[in-house]
Amino acid sequence: MYVYDEFDRTFLMERVAEFRDQVERRLSGALNEEEFKPLRLMNGVYLQLHAYMLRVCIPYGTLSSRQLRALAAVARKYDRGYGHFTTRQNIQFNWIKLAELPDAMADLAEVGIHGLQTSGNCIRNTTTDPWAGAAADEVADPRLYAEVIRQWSTLHPEFTYLPRKFKIAITAAKHDRAAIRVHDVGLRLHKRDGKTGFEVIVGGGLGRSPFIGKTIRDFLPEEDLLSYLEAILRTYNLGGRRDNIYKARIKIQVHEVGTEEFARRVEAEWAEIRDGALKLDDAALDAIRDRFANPDLEALEDGPAELAAALADPAFARWHANSVAPHKTRGHAIVTLSLKPVGAPPGDATADQMDAIADLADQYAYGEIRVAHEQNLTLPYVRQKDLPALWEKLKAIGVATPNVGLVTDIIACPGLDYCSLANARSIPIAQKLTERFSDDARITDIGRLHVNISGCINACGHHHVGHIGILGVEKKDEEFFQITLGGKGNSKARLGELIGPAVPESEIVDVVERLVETYLDLRTSPAETFIAAVERLGLDPFKERAYASR
Amino acid sequence: MPLVKNGAPAEDPFVAVADDAPLPDGPALISAARLLAEDAALAGRNGPLGVVWPNSRDVAELAPFLPRLDLVALEFPKFRDGRAYSQARLLRERHGFKGELRAVGNVLRDQVLLMLRAGFDAFAFDKDADAAAFGAAASTYSVFYQPTGDGRTTARDARRALAKAGG
């Protein structure tokens, strides 16, 4: 992973000092809450229902074991012994005291992490494929470019007070594991005539006005990445709406001026700056590439004897089929750690689990951990022969539930249990669904099925792109849930469609189960996934059954 | 409204003039509408001239007037409205404006460094305390990642220099 140099470290210490001064001014009364709010937000500090929440940035979801231990220590020392991994590849602590925040941040800065730009109307943490650098299907390692963007976007003097927040996602693989088409800017790295470049997609996003992003350039040479991004951001900063917070994202600007006109404006701006100081020559890219300390993986035998023997155990075989993915280096594998055990809030990890995972990463995975936007963790560099031993240890700490990508691998926002914006609770619905679908054989038979839950229209649980999307709404002071079907967040991104009236909390789990049973009854074979069946059959058969007993 | 210019407290010689009021001989600050409407009449005037340019208006329109302007004031109606950062960079880096570039409106200490980097050299603060804290606010950081035309060494330049020196 990228190792900070003295410039990065100095910057971070200066940031900690700046925030400490701002907190002191708040505590002394020199700043009132209204004045303090945007300053704390710029450092990832929210005021939630019960307490201040600290959102810590994990640049493109990559953590060292040392950093994970520091997160565990913060959870233990300043919070209630756990943290919550988010769909933005970040982590949140929900019970931090304002006066202790600067100390918590200073502790994190010791290992090179911070809360900078995890909130506010700025360029947020750039997200990418959690399998970057390891995936068998990638063209190049997207983390290099994510790091280039991280540096360029860090406290950007022009783009810190944008109309609204701005999220960039980048992928370099055939399968889009970063949901680039539902981001403000999506970048798909590909090669043309031996040159590396990007397809540039703008104006995607979820929230209350969901849009799939539009391609404004098929191939942008890599040396032009930053000047082109600067042209997009400038076009947005000057022309995006500021009269209505709900219409201020770039997706609305692109929608209102039209994709062609938006692209024309970006290209015109870019023509003025493309040969300027932002040009990424080889030396500039190499300087950052050289700071990536990637493990030197030795090609080993695929399917070693240790693995073959362990596969005789059906429980291991089930986990292996579910949670282990092919690696680009022979004899290695990518392992996903499910943070979705039965009955628990999706994405939570205790301090003890974090410490144990850090130790396992050191022992088996070159000390590197990734956070996936599905709110799971990934060990990207595991030797296949170590898989059986690793599995035993993951099981012991409760992160080997074989449900990755299955119905209980639920993405959920924090909901009304924590969030001041929510209409409904998300976590208890997720917990009840995992209890209803607690049988491993049953969920394996159901197969790939993404369930996404958002506690309000802001869509932090990405319900629009869930195969089954659940949206909490309030009706006469009661929590109700709308259901959408057929959403997808991948390279063929599509928004789910509403199937009918919202159902009360007491019925939502039954309705989801009936949708699943409808699929099981109607699928042509187990090879036809839930989403494929929805696409073939349309909504009607699902609608009928979902509401049948009401 | 305390003014800080080129890093130090300064008196403001400019007098804001209403659109229908006669122009004084001394330094005058006028609206964009007046500048555009009275172009020819203003051309013969000798006293220093400044304009308040709204953040909703393309600065390319202002470009032809720049050689005759001593001051351009860009507006921050709320500090969260960041359009003037882009305008400032365009005026400095694309249109080559060398005169005083003044931030007006909801100008606070916590944005000073961003404004300096965008090309502002004068600040009309809301609060005396913010004006007094200018020096500290301007030196909060020593590491900069973006080339913006303000001449500061970026991390990339510094790394390159270090590599050349064999470090």
Which class of secondary structure composition applies to the elements of chain A? alpha+beta
Number of strands of chain B: 8
Q: Pick out the low-confidence regions of chain A.
A: none
Biggest protein-protein interface?
A-B, 37 and 34 residues
Query: Helix count of chain B, per DSSP?
Result: 7
Report how far the terminal alpha carbons of chain B are from each other: 48 Å
Q: Count all strands of chain A and give the number.
A: 21
The count of domains of chain B is: 1
The CATH architecture designation of chain B is: Alpha-Beta Barrel
Low-confidence stretches of chain B: none
Q: What average pLDDT do the residues of chain B reach?
A: 94
Given the helix and strand composition of chain B, which structural class is it? alpha/beta
Give a verbal description of the structure:
The complex is a heterodimer of chains A (550) and B (167). By secondary structure, chain A is α+β, with helices and mostly antiparallel strands. Helix content of chain A is 37%, strand content 18%. Chain A has 18 helices and 21 strands. Chain A has helices at residues 6-28, 33-42, 65-78, 101-109, 143-153, 225-239, 250-257, 259-273, 282-289, 305-310, 314-323, 351-364, 387-396, 427-436, 440-446, 505-522, 530-537, 540-546, and strands at residues 45-47, 52-56, 62-64, 82-85, 91-96, 127-128, 168-171, 185-192, 195-202, 214-221, 324-326, 332-337, 348-350, 368-371, 377-383, 411-412, 451-454, 468-475, 478-485, 497-498, 503-504. In chain A, strands 16, 17, 18, 19, 20 and 21 form a six-stranded mixed beta sheet that branches. In chain A, a hairpin with a 5-residue loop joins strand 14 and strand 15 (377-383). The model of chain A has no long low-confidence stretch (mean pLDDT 94). Chain B has 167 residues and is an alpha/beta fold. Chain B has a single domain (3-141), classed as Alpha-Beta Barrel (TIM Barrel). Chain B is built from seven helices and eight strands; from the N terminus they run ββββααββαβαβααα. An eight-stranded mixed beta sheet of chain B has the order 2-1-8-7-6-5-4-3. In chain B, helix 3 (83-94) links the parallel strand 6 (71-76) and strand 7. The termini of chain B are far apart. The A-B interface holds A 5, 7-8, 10-11, 14-15, 17-18, 22, 30, 35, 38-39, 121, 151-152, 154-162, 234, 237-238, 242, 272, 276-278, 283-284, 287 and B 58, 79-83, 85-87, 89, 94, 108, 110-111, 113-115, 117-118, 129, 140-143, 145-148, 155-156, 158-160, 163.
